[in-house]
From TrEMBL:
Gene3D superfamilies recorded: Periplasmic binding protein-like II
Official protein name in the record: ABC-type glycerol-3-phosphate transport system, substrate-binding protein
PANTHER family: ABC TRANSPORTER SOLUTE BINDING PROTEIN-SUGAR TRANSPORT, ARABINOSE-BINDING PROTEIN-RELATED
InterPro entries: Bact_solute-bd_prot1
Residues annotated as signal peptide: 1-22
Length: 463
């Protein structure tokens, strides 16, 4: 079974023959869509950054910070321009990000090797939510408290959410913001209209976009024998699970807690089982197979493809080739029994690597990221970048902003993949089984005691 990268078991730290050269500072060779900010835009960014009291301090004596990841912050071949926060870092502090490339599934192996070699990798992405608390327990990351002041004007409005992720009294993640773009329902408006269905965006605008509306559309559209498939992709299970507002694992009073026995978890798992029984789940079915087919959205053969909005953070011809010129997106549907509208919420966050060569530089870069969210003029430049570089419409920006508001209003962060390698793999595989035809009670009985033991082992590390 071929799973997409975000659901590969990235925590399996098996031995690999790849040398450290596999992670290098070599940039993407593809330059077809590479871009550079217009000089007038850079001038505006510089003036905003230099004139603001939010950013303090002089230019860095050492502006180079080392970034290990499977994706580059710098411009690449996807049509991504210089991110506005990076431009602020460059213009205000003379900063530079040196990229060390890794495959997603080999990040932790390579990080361990770089730490052992003394290379001085500075920072690592925490937003995949598989680094905490595991990385703190394994001593791969350093606390950020000596470099980030969460009580400062730059950080005070995200202090509460950062305080949720404290281990042994220290912050190990520097969280920029809760994010609403983790998983959206991507669909094609032409397909919806030709099927005589109402646009999900209109339902959402009226407050009617919930599980019931989602399932009603599937019921009216799906005809697998005629290649009219329902739900595809590797993100829908957790995307729908996260709408109950109860993550599989949470942190309470500094300890990990399992929520597998919560009634809402049973309810959403039973609903996923019903969707499978009715033939609404295409991926893994006899007709579709185990390979996801996002291009079917553009071809009018699928109704819903839940996926992160990063699929639209690229030049328009790239995303429209897959999803069609009439592609649009809405949040995951609301749980009609939940007390609030919860959606899959990401946590844009970064880890300071143990033994990093320039933690002060990383802190200044993250200050620049916070500044980009707070300074209205700079934020407007960032929104314009979506239109100019990615071919977005104002309606797409408005929908993305609405999803961001939902995430910030009710942030529920799922850290189940960050518990440990074994626990993360067990939960990632098991919580999908209802969408593959296994009743929830069977899965629950098989895993709940094991998960409790995993959490007990990690909690024993709390001092």
């Amino acid at each position: 079974m071929k799973k997409a990268r975000y659901f590969i078991s990235a925590l399996l730290l098996t031995s690999i023959s790849m040398s450290l050269l596999a992670c290098s500072s070599k940039k993407d060779d593809s330059s077809k869509y590479s871009k550079e900010l217009d000089s007038s835009v850079r001038d505006e960014i510089r003036q905003n950054a230099v004139g603001s009291e939010l950013l303090t301090g002089d230019k860095l004596e050492n502006g180079v910070i080392k970034w290990l990841s499977d994706w580059d912050i710098n411009p690449d071949g996807t049509g991504k321009n210089v991110p506005i926060d990076l431009a602020v870092f460059q213009e205000r502090y003379g900063g530079e990000i040196k990229y060390y490339r890794c495959k997603y599934e080999e990040r932790y192996d390579m990080l361990s090797k770089y730490i052992a070699s003394g290379e001085g990798i500075d920072f690592f992405y925490g937003g995949n939510l598989d680094a905490f608390p595991k990385g703190a327990v394994k001593d791969m990351f350093a606390p950020v408290d000596d470099y980030i002041d969460f009580d400062s004007p730059l950080w005070e409005d995200v202090k509460d959410i950062n305080d949720q992720f404290v281990w042994n009294g220290k912050h190990y993640m520097a969280g920029i913001q809760a994010t609403g773009d983790k998983t959206a329902v991507v669909y094609n408006r032409k397909t919806v209209a030709e099927a005589g269905l109402e646009d999900p965006a209109d339902l959402y605008a009226r407050g009617e976009w919930d599980w019931n509306a989602f399932e009603n559309m599937l019921e009216k559209y799906v005809d697998n024998g005629s290649q009219k498939f329902g739900i595809d992709g590797w993100w829908f299970e957790y995307g729908l699970m996260n709408t109950i507002g109860v993550p599989p694992v949470s942190i309470e009073d500094g300890k990990l807690v399992s929520n597998l026995s919560d009634p809402s978890m049973e309810r959403v798992q039973n609903w996923l089982y019903e969707l499978y029984q009715k033939g609404y789940i295409a991926i893994g079915s006899e007709d579709l197979g185990w390979e996801s087919k996002p291009a079917y959205i553009g071809e009018g053969k699928e109704l819903f493809y839940p996926v992160g909005l990063y699929e639209f953070y690229k030049e328009k011809s790239q995303w429209s080739t897959t999803f069609g010129a009439d592609a649009f997106f809405v949040p995951m549907p609301k749980d009609p029994e939940a007390d609030e509208y919860y959606i899959p919420t990401g946590f844009e966050s970064y880890m300071f690597v143990k033994g990093g060569s320039n933690p002060q530089g990383v802190a200044k870069y993250l200050d620049c990221k916070r500044f980009t969210h707070l300074d209205e003029d700079t934020k407007a430049v960032a929104d314009k970048q979506f239109i100019d570089d990615y071919g977005w419409t104002q309606e797409m920006i408005d929908m993305k902003n609405s999803m961001q508001e939902l995430a910030e209003a009710n942030p529920v962060i799922d850290i189940s993949n960050g518990v440990s390698e074994d626990c993360g793999e067990l939960l990632d595989n098991s919580l999908r089984l209802t969408a593959r035809g296994t009743p929830w009670n069977e899965t629950y009985e098989a895993i709940y005691a094991t998960v409790d033991k995993y959490l007990e082992n990690i909690n024993s590390e709390v001092k």
